[in-house]
């Protein structure tokens, strides 16, 4: 469980390596956090039956109670941006890749390639980015 919050402890640490477990627990934490925040937002908006995107935008603008959840979502998003990028770079380092591979996500197919890199096991033993976080040979 402590690995889930390791990216917050290493807030802007782009050096070193991150295990798959640390990376995926961070992703789970972000998912649960934003599900809760959006549930708060949609609870403040009330009934959303068959609302088009335009109607939803008007509801958000017309509902003062929705402003606080929106502000919190924005601030939390900014707050977790840097540790999220850092843990992605450290995850790439675990398999011996440069953090610049992260830019591949800006292309159409790059997200799939990065997903495969995130799923693969790291390099056993020491690599140019540091010791093995699993403590293997």
What does this structure look like?
This protein is an all-alpha fold and 137 residues long. The protein has one domain (2-119). Helices cover 57% and strands 0% of the residues. The chain has helices at 6-9, 20-45, 53-62, 67-94, 110-119. Helix 2 (20-45) packs antiparallel against helix 4. The longest helix is centred in the middle third of the chain and has 28 residues, at 67-94. The radius of gyration is 19 Å and the shape is elongated.
Spell out the key features of this protein.
elongated, mainly alpha, 137 residues
- Strand elements, count: 0
Termini distance? 25 Å
Radius of gyration: 19 Å
Arithmetic mean of pLDDT: 90
- SS field, number of helical segments: 5
Shape: elongated
Share of β-strand residues:
under 5%
Helix content: 55-70%
Domain module tally: 1
Q: Unreliable runs, pLDDT <50, ≥5 residues?
A: none
Q: What's the helix-strand series?
A: HHHHH
Main β-sheet description: none
* Structure class: mainly alpha
């Amino acid at each position: 469980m402590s690995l889930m919050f390791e990216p917050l402890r290493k807030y802007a640490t782009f050096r070193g390596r991150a295990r798959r477990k640390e990376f995926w627990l961070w992703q789970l934490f972000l998912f649960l956090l934003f599900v809760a925040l959006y549930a708060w937002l949609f609870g403040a908006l009330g009934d959303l039956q068959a609302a088009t995107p335009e109607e939803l935008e008007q509801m958000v603008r017309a509902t003062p109670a929705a402003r606080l959840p929106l502000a919190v979502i924005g601030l939390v998003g900014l707050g977790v941006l840097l540790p999220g990028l850092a843990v992605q770079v450290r995850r790439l380092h675990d398999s011996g890749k440069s953090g610049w591979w992260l830019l591949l996500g800006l292309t159409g197919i790059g997200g799939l390639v990065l997903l495969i890199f995130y799923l693969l096991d790291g390099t056993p033993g020491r690599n140019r980015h540091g010791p093995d976080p699993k403590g293997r040979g």
